[in-house]
Structure formats: structure tokens, C-alpha cells
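Entry 14. Structure prediction run on the chain below.
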Amino acid sequence: MIKSSHCALCVLAFLLGGASTVKADSLTLKITKKYLNFPVSHQIDRKAMSIKVDGKTERMFDIRLATGKPDYWVFCDMSEFQNKNVTIEYTTTDGRLNQLYQDNEIAGKDSLYKEQNRPQFHFSSRRGWNNDPNGLLYYEGEYHLFYQHNPYEREWGNMHWGHAVSRDLIHWEELPVALYPDEHGTMFSGSVVVDYNNTAGFNKGNSPALVAIYTADNAEKQIQCIAYSHDKGRTWKKYAKNPVIDSKAKWNSKDTRDPKVFWHKPINKWVMVLNERDGHSIYNSDNLKDWTFESHITGFWECPELFELAVNGNPDNTRWVMYGASGSYMVGSFDGKKFTPETGKHYFLTGSSYAAQTFTNIPEADGRRIQIGWGRIQAKDMPFNMLMLLPVELSLHSTKNGIRMYSKPVKEVDQLEGQVLQRHNLTIEEANNSLMPFANEPCMRIKTKFRLSHATSAGLKLFGQSLVDYDMNFNLVNGVFYSPDDCTSMEIEADIIIDKTSVEVFIDGGAYSYSFERKADPNNTNGFQFFGNNIEVLDLRICKMNSIWNTNL
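Output returned:
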């Protein structure tokens, strides 16, 4: 979870019970509609707003409430306060509250998912900012994506847990906010588990509770808290005795965050991997409430992961992977209390991806380790910002350099493909001619394999931007060191997935992948263009990609 001080005012207000010495406007109204719509202007400084019900502060956040024409509108879901009187306070005295209004629709709904810079098959929130994926979970036919979210602005701040669900990992429905800031602070990253054995005592009858383990961040420290849900994650109740871990004193550091929790059958305990100061710590628990520190490994930063994978698909030969936010990882063993690396750190991805997390509770019949990363790609001048990268399947493979991790798009991505054009054994001119009609398509997938002959470097560009640039002489792909397992290979494969604002590329079956902002050179008119002296395009597969939003592009 990336750090910032943007929400210091918000957190302080919570810790003071919502009290403020600053004069404020106040508005009392009866909630009769689903949403409150707020006008936002980036020419205005952030100021604190509170929403109180029966004298209790239910919402507290910072917002740039517009005085005149807004840059865009955001909303607050008020469904749980229907027919109640609420008091809204804002730390100004210039009447800005008069511009907000109630409605059963969010402002700007007619353009929703049709915006100029809206990703068409990558998840992005309806309004506001999103970053780290949190609490990735499969449960009763639904994939749950929780995520770091600022509902009230397209920039970082006011950290909540947003929530979306999918039945196929591709088409997402955004649900109301799952976790709101509270007296402990704003909601930083974490994970969600299904407590089948009722270890925490939160279950209701025969239905297991979903338990979220998350970091609460305030000006003083970061602490670990839990909440539980009885309705498939739609609503949450926070544990009355939070926090369950407060480790600032132990580490003499505020950097104690991002718990990833899973059940470890061999020791019959819960395991938590937690970023603490200079690395990842491992804790054990019987009940998700009481945690015992077991070990610590340095050299990682933020958003830890620890999971087991089969090597070459062999369930009798497995390794554990320790993972950090930047995408670096170690392969090793794990005894329930301590991770022991067998190798140094490696990488399998670069570019825009950060803070990726894998799903828990994937059925054994499926057996995949599926990951989603935060794509740090701006949606310029939009009422929303950032996106989630496509879900990928992780695997371990034996290579000449040892065991390495691969990633490839999940098979569910294939359903978005439209009509396919496939060609083989093309000259560079023939390949460019095949691609020419697709240059201005907003969403595409290209799979290609090409061979260098008289060139030391070659690749594919789109309006001057390098999608793939393979430098065999210096072993580089798009400027990053990459050596194929066959170190004498003259061939390279690429799966290139292009959305309106982003590009994801998977090299040689996922041995290396990267992502970046789609950004054409405004002075280049060439469209798609293979480059390289006398290269051979052995395979070229082209298809348009359909939107997940059921809109016309």
C-alpha cells in the first residue's frame, strides 16, 4: 500500500470524534434517494466533510467541493440511511453545500463506461481513484475484487475498500464501498479469507463468515484490524476489539501494513505475511484475533504474498514463492513459520504493475494461482483514475537458470476476442500490410512470433510507440534485460493486448511480461509497423477485443 499524507486532516478528525475548531457550513436533510452527488473542482483545496446520523459520524472524508462549475461529479451511496435525517458539515462558510443533491442515479450516468479514456476490458471504478487490489477471493461462484479506493476524487486519498464482483474474472460489477475509514484511520491494503471452521467465532449457523484482515492507517501508526461479513461481502462489521496487531513499538517504525492471510493445513493454523519496516514478517494464529510473531525476512517492500506452486505442473514437486509489491520474488520452502529461500530475488514482470495480489479459495478442481495487479496508468481528465491489469495465471517452470515464475493471461480473456485474422510465414512488408486496417482500433490482441535474420534488434511499433523491441545483442526487451531459455534463439513470441489507454505484453509464454500506458507519437502516421532488417514473421494472429461494459466504442 503506497503511503501518503493527503488524508491527515481526515484521520485527525476521526480521532477527535469528528470535532473541529474550524467554522463549518451545515446542512440537514432527510435521505429519500440512493445517492448524494457532489461537485468536485481541482481548483479548490481539500477540506473535511462529515455526515452524521443521530449525532454519530458515519462518514468522514476530504473533498474539493466546487463553488462554481465542477470538473466532474462524485457520489456517496446513502442506501443504509434511507428515511433518516442526516447532518452534513463542511469546513467552509461559503455555501458550497447548496450544490450537492440527492438522486437515485449517479451524476453523469449516461456517459458511464463510455468516457473517452475509459479502459474497455480492464476494471476501473465508476468514479474516483483506485490502486492496490485487496482481498482477492473466490466464494460461491463469485470472484471478489476489493481495492484501495478514493470515492471522492480522481487522486489518492481517503482510502476506503472499493468492491467489485465477477463470475468470469472479466466482466465486473461494481458494488457499494465495503470498508470505510473509522476511528482507527483510513483503510489500507489487506486480504479476505473464508473461515470455514469458525475459528474466529463470527459464523452464523452453517454459513461461514468472510473475514477481512486489513491495515488501518493514521498519523501515528499502522495497525492490523479485522472485519467480517455474513452476506457474501456486501456489508461488513468491524471487530469490536480492533486492532489485532499493533507492532509499531516492536519495529520502531510506522511501516507495518498490508496483511496477506491464508490457512496452512500442515500446521492447522492461519498464517499472516505482513510488511514490517524492512521486509516481510510471518505470524501464526488459531483464531484470526490473536497472533504470534514467528519470523522475518528482509529485502521486500509492501504488499507481501506467500504461496505454493507446482513446478512444471507436477503436484509432487512444489516450491513456495515469497513476493513483494514491485514484482520481485524468491523461490524456496516454508514450514508454516519460516520461509527459507533457495535462490536470490528474480523478476518476471516490469512496467506499470504494482502491488499485485493472488486469489484465495480457488476451488481445487480449478487449481490455478490467479493474480491481479494495479496498473499505474492515468486516465487523463476523467472523473476516475487508474485501472486493474488483466488477471493472469502464475506457474513455476524449470529453466536452464533454475526455477522461474511465469505469468499468462487467464483463459477467460479469450472470450473477448472478436473475428480472428491469422497469417503465417510473412515478410515484414506482408505483415505490415496485414496490420494496416487495424491501426486505429481502440482494443486489440496480437499474437506474433518473429525471427531475426540479419538484424540484432527488431520488433513491432504502433504509431511510433514500441510494443515489442527485442535487442538480441544486448539481451533486452523494451530496454529491460531478458534472455530466452535458449540463449542462442533468434526467435521471440509476444502476446500483445491493447486497450484504449494501456498495453500488456507477454513474452515467450509468460517468461517475462510488462505493461505501460498506450501513448502514440502524435507526429507518427505509420500505424502498426514491424521493424528490423529482413526479419521473418512466422506467425501473426490479429483480433479485435470486445468491451466488457456492453457499450459502443
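The CA atoms of residues 264 and 550 lie 41 Å apart.
Filed with the rest of this week's runs.
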